[in-house]
Amino acid sequence: MIRSRPLTLWGAIVAYSVLLSVLSIARHWGFYSLEDAGAFPQMFWTTLHGKFLNTNLPGLGRFAFTSHNYLADHFSPIILLLLPVYAAWERPEVLFVVQSIMLGLAALPLHGLVFDRFGDRFLATSFAVAWLMSPFVWQSNMGDFHPDTFQPLFIFGAFFYLLRRRPGPYLTLLGLSLLCKEDAFIHVIAIGLFAIAALRATALGALTVALGGLWALATFKLLMPLFGGGMAYVDHYADFGRTLPRVVTRMLLEPQRVLAHLAQPAIRSAIVWILSTLAFLPLLSPLGFMAAALPAMERLLTNLPHINTLSWYYSMPVLPVLFVAALMGTSNAVRLVWRGEVPRNGLRWIGMLLIAATLITGVRLGFGIVGPFALRMPGPTLSRDGWLWVSGRDSVIRKLLSGVPESASVSTSPYIAAHVAGRFDLGIYPYRPLDRDVILLDLYGQKHPADLADYRCEIVRVLSRGEYGVVEYLDGFVYLRRGQATARNAEAAGEVASIYEAEDLIADGFEKVFDLGAGNKQAMAVTRRRSAHLLYGPYVSLPPGRYQVAVRITAHQRSAGDVATLDVTADQGSTILAERTIRGPDLREPGRYQQFVLEFQSERRLHNVEFRVHARGAPDLRVDRINLYPGTLALEVLRESCPG
User: Which are the contacts of 420, defined by CB distance < 8 A and separation ≥ 6?
Assistant: First the structure.
């Protein structure tokens, strides 16, 4: 399978592996990796220190953010092969490098598959390069670390030996794919059915189907229960029922319900995008397409948006089977168009069509890391520090992390977790009773989950109880330690209460963009698609007092005229409390955020107070956040809105 592969292919594999390793590590250093990136380093660390694959990070159902054995939640024993590698370099980055290499190496058996079928190196290399350029592969690679990304190498290898009728290595590679995830039996059964229907390999196909079925029974009834787990997927299919028999029955007997689910715009769009990367060639092979449909339906029919849109790493293992379907579709097209001896130029045209389709789709989707499929990150932009996706504010959190004792238990924000994973007790704030030694949070960063409306309220409660004291409060990061003096708690609580992120306000003519200069790397920017541009909210009530409203804005282009008008109003806009016009010369340095302050005083209680930004002349005006001062009054406002 490896012999006589062209240097072009090896060069593409090396280039992909190096590039995606660098991008994945840069993403991690820029604090974009989420808690999954911390789960695997933590379980490796706990294994090396006496607790086998133990982690507190994400789990399904009753395992969610509780201490558990990973194999009870996801049966992926393949990860044990990485333990010696991690032991040599106890850093999450090593996992990102291994993942990039595994996805890159998947191009080898794919190349062999196509070359065996057509004997044309250009077409075979085109398929391999299309794999390496696929935005779905890139997003899977960049979506933290997951053993699911090992499956394409094993699936392509299994198909390679299946078409050569070599059952030994074929079954071995299928066995390895089964070790990657507990639901891998689905694509194994699909491959077995394909062997029976398309290749007439009845005995081998039946053996494959039996292998998949028996492995499913062994996994869910024997192996996962040994570690305290079992089947935990039924709630993913709530649209079809609440029990496994009911879900399966409805999927089989109510096709109109299935079609209605698949017709949802986001799901329909995902299907079109993944097929467009392959120039819709899989549709020319009905049997190949049906083989991909089985693992695809497992994902598309869920009620979870991040799964049913095949985003993140959930296109694995659907994509490799679709590539095989595209290969079979190409074979059918050749028979239909040329009927006899296929001209070499014809195969070259197909190869170029495939690369063009992948490239066009990749650009449109930002290769899975920019645009509609983005993983909470901006495009590959150099910050002032010179690193991809790394802002100056990231150095602040690194400084705070260096002061966290290795023996301390930690509760933290999701994208900080992977950076403190080497400990027995690590949790995502505020998912567990607050009994950990250290709480380390980013007040400007992502709130997880996104619908946790009382995130700020919970932080204020912790600061008010007195069990934790502020060790450091710096640039929106707060480091709390149990038993620490509480002298700075009131100040930190006031700062927490003062924050109003621009993306949480109501936008008319603004859109959310990634911006390394913004506190949480997200800002609201003027969109050229609208003529009116207004950002407003949050309609709060303010007690009597003297206030300051600080608006943090920037524009990337210099302007001599008016840039924006800032105002504070009450009574649904009928009472103007403060107003200020910002002109181009007021912005001292294009692209660097500045804070502009409005002051007002009221002797009465104010209702429906709005902080408003009217864009006037700058086509690239951006708003990061708004702060309400003093913190004591902001805290009073927040407490009135907090439940309980």
Answer: 38, 401, 404, 410, 412, 426, 440
Is residue 382 pLDDT above 60, yes or no? no
Angle, helix 151-163 to helix 167-178, in steps of 10 degrees:
160
Residue 210 CB: number of other CB atoms within 10 A?
13
Quick check: helix, strand or coil at residue 268?
A: helix
Q: What is d(CA 613, CA 564) in angstroms, rounded to the nearest whole number?
A: 7
Residue in 140, 195, 100 with CA at minimum distance from that of residue 319: 140
Residue matched to tokens 């399966």: 248
**pLDDT value, residue 372:** 39
Q: What is the SS3 assignment for 242?
A: coil
SS3 content of the chain, % helix, strand, coil (to 5): 50, 15, 30
Q: Which domains does the chain have, with CATH numbers?
A: 7-33+92-229+264-373 (no CATH), 233-257 (no CATH), 392-498 (no CATH), 500-641 (2.60.120.260)
Instruction: Provide the terminal-to-terminal Cα distance of the chain, rounded to the nearest Å.
Output: 64
8 A C-beta contact, residue 139 and residue 312:
yes
**C-alpha to C-alpha distance for 23 and 25, rounded to whole angstroms:** 5
Alpha helices in 30-82 (DSSP H): 36-48, 70-73
Indicate whether 379 pLDDT > 60.
no
- How far apart, in whole angstroms, are the C-alpha atoms of residue 479 and residue 487? 14
Integer angstrom CA distances of residue 24 from 33, 82, 124, 161: 9, 18, 28, 32
Q: Which amino acid is at 225?
A: P
Q: How many CB atoms lie within 10 A of CB 168?
A: 8
Could you read off the pLDDT of 214-262 as tens digits, one per residue? 999 999 999 999 998 877 778 888 889 888 889 889 999 999 999 999 9
- Provide the residue type at 107 as one letter: A
> Which tokens sit at 584?
């181009």
Whole-angstrom distance, CA of residue 123 vs CA of residue 528 = 43
39, 427 contact by CB (below 8 A): no
Residues 427/410, Cβ–Cβ less than 8 Å? yes
Higher pLDDT, 193 or 395: 193
Helix (H), strand (E), coil (C) string for 541-563: EECCEEEEEEEEEEECCCCCCEE
Tokens of 329: 């579709």
- Position 62 scores a pLDDT of 65
CA distance 422 to 425: 9
- Written as six digits, the tokens of 67 are 């201490």
pLDDT in the model for residue 446? 58
What's the chain's Rg over C-alpha atoms? Answer: 27
Specify the residue for token string 């660097």: 592
- For 57-68, the pLDDT digits (tens) are 876 566 667 788
Token pair, residue 217, equals 């029974």
Of 566, 431, 557, nearest in space to 64 by CA: 431
Nearest CA to 418 out of 20, 30, 23, 21 is that of 30
Average pLDDT over the chain, rounded to whole? 87
Going by C-beta distance under 8 Å and a sequence separation of 6 or more, which residues neighbour residue 84?
Answer: none
* 22-53 pLDDT per residue, tens: 989 988 888 888 888 889 999 999 999 999 99
**Burial letters 419-451, b for 16+ CB under 10 A, else e:** bbbbbbbbbbbbbbebebbbbbbbbbbbbbeee
SS3 at position 581: strand
